[in-house]
Amino acid sequence: MEFQKYRFNRKDGIIYLENANQLIPQDSQMQMIILSASKPEWKSMFGGSPTWWIQLIFTNTQGQMAYAWLNSGTTNALETFLSYRANIEQSGKVLYEVITTFSLVQGDGDFFDYHFTGVPGKPGLKERMEAVVSGLSRQYESLV
Question: Which contiguous run of DSSP H or E holds residue 71?
């Protein structure tokens, strides 16, 4: 299974699709179904200094599997996602039964902020996405 790779650029407020090591500008917002979100990890990526990162695995609006990383930078940028996830879980739902709209919005400083909103999916979405997540888990196990 091939995954599309996105970059959420907080400096210019644009979502990029990475294709053959080229960055193709998309927009400043996109809809997705988040299948998995890692716990925050302290690491260096893209040649930068270490910072906190969260990996998202999701399906885009075309139903393609994709992933991207959120980072804290020098701010508390991950807080919006962590709050969003907590609110969904407190409502008794899981991320993959919600249609998430992700946006990059102008922040107070030099960088754009992450913004997440969601609406419940149609009946049956949770069960369909559980099957996808289970298939991904089995595929991952066969690679290890």
Answer: strand 65-71
- CA torsion through residues 110, 24, 20, 71, sign: positive
Identify the residue whose tokens are 């919600």: 98
pTM, entire model: 0.90
Q: Which 3 state secondary structure label does DSSP give 20? A: coil
Q: Are strands 65-71 and 4-9 parallel, antiparallel or unpaired?
A: parallel
Tokens at 55, concatenated: 């990996």
CA pair distance 9, 123, nearest whole angstrom: 33
Tens of pLDDT, residue by residue over 40-52, are 999 988 788 899 9
- The per-residue pLDDT for range 1-17, each reduced to its tens digit, is 689 999 999 999 999 99
At a CB cut-off of 8 Å and minimum separation 6, what does 93 contact?
Answer: 120, 126
Burial 79-109 (b: 16+ CB within 10 A, else e): ebbbebbeebeeeeebbbbbbbebbbeeeee
Nearest to 67 by CA among 78, 80, 54: 54
CB 33 within 8 A of CB 99: yes
